[in-house]
Each structure stands twice: as structure tokens, then as C-alpha cells.
User: Fold this.
Amino acid sequence: MSGFIGAKRLLGMYRPDTIGILAEVPSLESRNRGSTHATNALFESLYLAHRDAVLRYLRVRAGDADALDLAALTFERAFRTIVAGGSVNLGWLLRTARNAAIDAGRRQRTRMLLESIVARLGPDAGPSPEVQVVAEETASAVRRAVNALPSAQREAIALRYAGGLSAREIGGVLGKSEAASQKLISRALERLRENLHDQT
Assistant:
């Protein structure tokens, strides 16, 4: 895939109307005509390497209905940053995705986090009615326990278990040190255990 059309096509995988949103980007790119191919190649490799992690995180953070739009916005911003000569990595992408979700005012992350946790707890085969009831009860208990966490701990848990990030990467997203992020995750898990124990 080459040229700006290639970048548009990649973004369009998430959001069909992205090309309309990126109408201004060719003028940004025209300033760097000599590096157009390199810019598009860098963007393409970044996109292919990190699209799944960004989308998983946004599904937890904002819900399925908004995740695709927010992922397209995140990668649009990444492309503009690359064109401007900036540096973009996974931490930058997830921080940008987080900010986009906050800006959009989406508050569905808890529901998606719970579905992810319940999916990990449940069997791979078709569940029996009894297993479904237990899964629903477990989801309800986990929902209450997660809702009882402070927002920073909820965010750290989402990034760790839904986004699959390390403590260092979580620190990059949240603007904390690796040690502070690890402590936040540990405290969140301990509080989750306490909250779940109190409910049983």
C-alpha cells in the first residue's frame, strides 16, 4: 500500500467515513512530499502492529458502539503527528485513545470490562443454563466490585486485563511511574478481592 490513499484505506478499515474526516490531511502531507512514502510506511507499520491493542482498549473504555470511531480518531491523530515529524508508539496511541474516549464522554468501560472478565471465567464450549446463571451472578458481583473501585484503579484494571499492558505501559498512559502503576494495580486487585468477598 503506498501513498496517502493507502493511509486512508487503512483508517477506513475502522470507519468508512474516515476519508471525509481526513480531507485536510493531504495539505499537511504536501509539506513533506519527499518523505510521503516513508511517512505512509511508518504509519502502516504502526497501525498494523497496534490496531488490535487500541481497539481492545477502546472497547473496554467506551463500548463497541463507539470504539471504532474512537480508534479511527486515534489513528488519524497518529498520522497527523507522524506527518508533523512527531514520534508515536503504543503508549502514545493508548494515551490518545484514552483522551479521545474522555473527550467523547463515553462511560461504558465498566460493562465491557466485566464482559471481558466473564468471558475469561466462562467455558469455551456452549454453556449450560446452570453455567449461564452462575456467569450472570458472577458478572453482577464483579460489576458491583469494579464499580466500588476508585476511577484510577478501574482504569488501571482495564488497561492491564483488557488492554494487556504492562505496568510500565500503563504508567505511560496514566502519566505515572512503573512502580506507581504496579502499586495501583495491586491495590485495585486487593480491593476487588475484598469487595467480592464481602458480597459472598
In short: The chain is about 80% helix and 0% strand. Confidence is low (pLDDT under 50) at residues 1-34. Residues 36-62 form the longest helix (27 residues). The CA atoms of residues 81 and 89 lie 11 Å apart.
